[in-house]
UniProtKB/TrEMBL annotation:
Signal peptide: none annotated. InterPro entries: FAD-bd, FAD/NAD-bd_sf, Geranylgeranyl_reductase. Residues 18-301 form the FAD-binding domain. It holds the Pfam family FAD_binding_3. Gene3D superfamilies: FAD/NAD(P)-binding domain. It comes from Telmatocola sphagniphila. PANTHER family: CONDITIONED MEDIUM FACTOR RECEPTOR 1, GERANYLGERANYL DIPHOSPHATE REDUCTASE. This is FAD-dependent monooxygenase. SUPFAM superfamilies: FAD/NAD(P)-binding domain.
Amino acid sequence: MGTHLEARRLNSLADYWPVVVIGAGPAGCLAAREIARRGVRVLLVERDSFPRHKVCGCCLNFRGREALRKAGLNDLLENADAQELRSLQWSIGSRSVTLPLRGGVSISRERMDWDLMKAAIDVGVVLQDRCSAEPGEEFPNHRLVHLQNLQGKRQISAGLVLVCDGLSSRSGKPVIQENSRIGLGTILPSSSKYAESNKLWMNVSKSGYLGIVHLEDGRLALAAAADRSAIREFGSPGQFAMELLRSARQPIPESLEYAQWQGTAPLTRKNQIAEGRLFRLGDAAGYIEPFTGEGMAWALTAACAVVPLAITPWLPEHRVAWNRIYREKIADSQRKCRLAAKLLRSPVCVSGLVGISKIVPGIAARIVRQLHPVGSN
Ligand SMILES: Cc1cc2nc3c(=O)[nH]c(=O)nc-3n(C[C@H](O)[C@H](O)[C@H](O)COP(=O)(O)OP(=O)(O)OC[C@H]3O[C@@H](n4cnc5c(N)ncnc54)[C@H](O)[C@@H]3O)c2cc1C
């Protein structure tokens, strides 16, 4: 996959950038690339060093693929050997059903985010990695951005700041839902117990759910949304996952016991979409539990949608415009996800749905596809 990119010295950066993008996940990388492709100078600031994994179910649905296609990045998934997802197994308690899926793929976040970052650099985006950024005060002609890395601190200014720093975003006024679940994830070596590639296993219990999918190199990505009280009760994410798999009568991958888990901040949240000379995109703009596996598609769709505003000199009306565009392109499809998340809090509902699926697979497949559009088109 390549080696680390050289850390740029903070004091070698220009004082002013027309666009500064904070965070190099799917939202940040694609937005930076699409803006730079239109001839605007873009600085992309990323806290981590790539390639890196992040907590994610690693399923990209057809809307996410469509956003990549529109950006001319058709080959990215194929070159990475992304796996087509052809079936979804839903399991709860003793009930289990397998339904067809189409249009979605699985791909590791190490690979996808790294390839997106390289695609951005290829069109002239300047990357400052291993550097943390926070938006600062707004002035009539610019907004400050505070940068910090191991070498020190630096302040630069930007015509527009795109905040794409994910769930850890501290800027704005994030409002976190009280009983919000947290995200958990790990990557395991391939397992004979989960030999079928092209399949997504979703296991549901009253305290959360756990998805398992094959990655392009045969490893397994496990990602869960869990009640915080359940993690306390079981003592660790690994125990929670094993208990969930047992309750759904599913096999436990050999190496699960020794897995290193990563966690996230509470998932369900809202944030301000726009401020003066600042737009939020992706998880930084708000997030809902990931059952429907759409977060990357929302991030990529928002990245494409922001371009016309980002390449136009700033006008105060842009705040209203970004709120409207965001509502039309993203918030409407998030409503369905919110409904799914609510239904999934009721094991009786899920169990009923799985039961119906067995009796009337055609109708149930349609309902499940609506709730879980990882692969539908
Ligand atoms: C358990 C779970 C399962 C999921 N499963 C799926 C799935 O199957 N399919 C799907 O589409 N989505 C899924 N998602 C959602 C998906 O992971 C996110 O919606 C998606 O990553 C959002 O992209 P983003 O670019 O907004 O943020 P991120 O991908 O989180 O990227 C943000 C980047 O910003 C960087 N950053 C953070 N703070 C700073 C800072 N101060 N300065 C500089 N850089 C910073 C981070 O290092 C990171 O690289 C899942 C999420 C969870 C929690």
